[in-house]
Design brief:
Blueprint: E1 2-6, E2 12-17, H1 22-29, H2 34-57, H3 62-78, H4 92-111, H5 127-136, H6 143-169, H7 173-184, H8 192-198, H9 203-226, H10 235-247
Antiparallel strand pairs: 1-2
Helix pairs in contact: 1-2, 2-3, 2-6, 3-4, 6-7, 6-9, 6-10, 7-9
Length: about 250
């Protein structure tokens, strides 16, 4: 479950927790390993909005959906709720969808009796923003399709955020903001010529930078996918599914 870190010279450093696969994270989390719990919380931060959207589409009000989603994560992260559900090896999103259905079927009566505001929030929650985003995909016909769509969008946003952080740390934040449209396909993206003039660069250099960003974007995307499936063999299928959901 653990691996040794190395510096640029190859020297062995402090042990790092291998958080590649969610099944490993869950197994270690049951043993109250701090690194595993942190990794699990990171995964859950990515999934709060898809689950909130799913609960809303099941017919719950915004306030009830917020309460239910927070209660679900509270139990998942703090009350060993995982022990009640068979964590069959597979995709993390499939596990969460089964878990939230189990929760809604068995815990709603108890949860609705708790006064709103009486619990801590275990994941960031901006209800107004969530409702605005949900309105944009209201045409999706089922709760499951809402969940899948929100999962795909949120997943790419998470990866783009990591790429933005790397660019900021390298002192290229302005350049990244100008070039990200070429990664996301935004119609409002400026032309290379306009960007070159604004960034005091040239088109050839910017095209090379976009190529490097795309390569890194792909690497980060694969890394994040690997965290949510049972093993490397499932990565390609999950990537294909993600882009299928986005193109639907």
């Amino acid at each position: 479950m653990r691996r040794e870190s190395t510096d640029a010279s190859g020297a062995v450093g402090q042990p790092l927790f291998a958080t590649t696969h969610w099944s490993v994270v869950l197994a270690a989390a049951n043993e109250e390993t701090p690194a595993a719990a942190e990794a699990l919380e990171r995964l859950c931060r990515t999934y709060w909005y898809p689950l909130y959207a799913y609960v809303r589409r099941r017919g719950y009000s915004p306030e009830d959906a917020q309460d239910l989603t927070q209660e679900f994560f509270w139990r998942l992260l703090r009350k060993n709720y995982l022990a009640r559900i068979d964590p069959a090896k597979g995709k993390f999103r499939s596990f969460l969808l089964a878990a939230i259905n189990h929760f809604l079927a068995n815990e709603w009566d108890r949860t609705k009796a708790v006064k709103r505001g009486g619990r801590l929030e275990f994941v960031p929650f901006d209800q107004e923003s969530a409702e605005q985003r949900l309105a944009e995909i209201a045409h999706e016909p089922s709760p499951e399709q809402i969940f899948e769509r929100c999962w795909a969008i949120t997943f790419l946003e998470e990866v783009l955020g990591q790429l933005r952080d790397e660019a900021t740390q390298a002192g290229r934040a302005e350049q990244f903001e100008g070039l990200k449209g070429f990664l996301t396909g935004e119609k409002s993206a400026d032309s290379y010529a306009i960007l070159a003039a604004r960034l005091d660069s040239n088109e050839a250099a910017l095209r090379k930078q976009v190529q490097r960003l795309r390569q890194r974007y792909g690497e980060l995307l694969r890394q994040e996918i690997e965290r949510t499936v049972a093993g490397p063999a499932e990565v390609e299928d999950e990537l294909c599914h993600l882009f299928t959901v986005l193109s639907a």
